[in-house]
Amino acid sequence: MKIEIENPDPFLEQLKKVYIKMDAAYNNAAAHYGFECRGCPDNCCLTRFFHHTVLEYAYVKKGFFLLKPEIQEDVKKSASDVCRKTSELQKENKEIRLMCPLNFKGLCQIYEYRPMICRLHGIAHELHWSGKITYGPGCGAFTDHTKGMNYYKFDRTPFYIEIADLENELKKRAGIASKIKMTIAEMIETF
Question: Superkingdom, according to UniProt (predicted)?
Answer without folding.
Answer: Bacteria
